[in-house]
Amino acid sequence: MKELSLHILDIIQNSVNAGASIIEIEIEEEEKEDIFRFSVKDNGCGMSADFLRKVKDPFTTTRTTRKTGLGIPLLEAAAVQCGGRLDIVSEPGKGTAVTAVFQNSHIDRAPLGDMAQTMVTVISGSPEIDFLYTHIKNGQSFVFQTEDLRRVLQGVPLDTPEIIGWIEEAVREGLAEIQVK
Amino acid sequence: MKLSELIKRLDLKLLTKSDFEDREITGGYCGDLLSWVMGKAKPGNVWITIMSNVNIVAVASLTDAACILLSENMNLEREIIEKADEQDVVILRSSKPSYILAAEVFQAVEK
Lengths: 181, 111
Prior knowledge:
The complex is a heterodimer of chains A (181) and B (111). Chain A has 181 residues and is an alpha+beta fold. Chain A has helices at 4-17, 49-54, 58-64, 71-81, 115-125, 146-153, 161-177, and strands at residues 22-30, 35-42, 85-91, 95-103, 130-137, 140-145. Chain A has one domain: Heat Shock Protein 90. The longest helix of chain A has 17 residues, at 161-177. Chain A is globular. Chain A starts with a helix and ends with a helix. The N and C termini of chain B lie close together (10 Å). Helices cover 41% and strands 16% of the residues of chain B. The longest helix of chain B has 13 residues, at 98-110. Chain B is built from five helices and five strands. In chain B, helix 2 packs parallel to helix 3. Chain B has a single domain (3-110), classed as 3-Layer(aba) Sandwich (Udp-n-acetylmuramoylalanyl-d-glutamate--2,6- Diaminopimelate Ligase, Chain: A, domain 1), CATH 3.40.1390.20. The mean pLDDT of chain B is 94. Classes of the chains: A alpha+beta (181), B alpha/beta (111). Chain A binds chain B through residues 1-2, 6, 57-59, 62, 70, 73-74, 77, 80, and chain B through 33-36, 38, 53-55, 57-59, 62, 83, 87.
C-alpha cells in the first residue's frame, strides 16, 4: 500500500472484527537504530494456533474468512522487502498482537501517511471501542487515549462531529510536537 | 488475441502448466504495488510486474488476470509456481524490462 497508515487501518479493522473492546496502537520511529516499528494489540477473540499458522498465507485467509483478506500477507511482504519482519502473537479468548518492523531508511519503506485521519476513521467507525495510541519518535512520545476523553465527555458519544474534529486536531498537533511528519 | 499466440509472438517463457493458453486477452496492466494492482487490473489482463512473492498469485487470482508476466527474468521459488498451478494462474517470464513488455503487449493486443 502507498502508506503505512493504510496497513495500520487494515490491521485495526481486523481487531474490530475480532470483537475487541480495547485496541492499542503503538508506533515507534528510531532514526539512530534505523528502525520503524508499529504494533496493534487487541483483547478480541484471538486465533487458534492452527489459524495463526495459516494467517500469513494469502489463499487460506481469503478463502476461509473474508475478514482478513490480503491485509496480513501484503503487510508482511512490505516489511520483509524493507529488511524487516511481521510477528503475530495470538491466544484464543485473550487477543492478538501484530507487530511490523521496517528498516526506517529503506528506500522502499512507504511513508507513514496521515495518522490523525486514520484514528478519526477508526474511532468514528467504532466509537464504543477504547483506543490507545502511542507514538514514539527518537525517544519523545505522544499518547492519545479515548478513555480519558470519554471521562471528560460524560456520555457524549465520540462520533459526535465536533468531538471527531477535535480528536483529529489533537492528534495532528500532538504528532507535530514530536516532529512526526 | 489468445494467450498462446501472445506467448509465441513475444517469445515468452511459460513457467506454469500450459492448460490455459487459449485464454482470451483483454489488454494489459503494469504495476508492482500489489494493493494498487488489486483495484486496477481487469479480468483477462496481462499483468506485467517484477514482484515475485506468493502474493502475486493471489492478486492475479482475485483480479482474474489472464496471466502474470514477470519482467527482467525475475526468479520465482518453486512453491510459488506450484501455488499458481493450484489456482489456475498462468505465469510467464521475459528478460525484457516492464516498459518494453508493456509496449509489445500493447502492439500485439490492441492492434
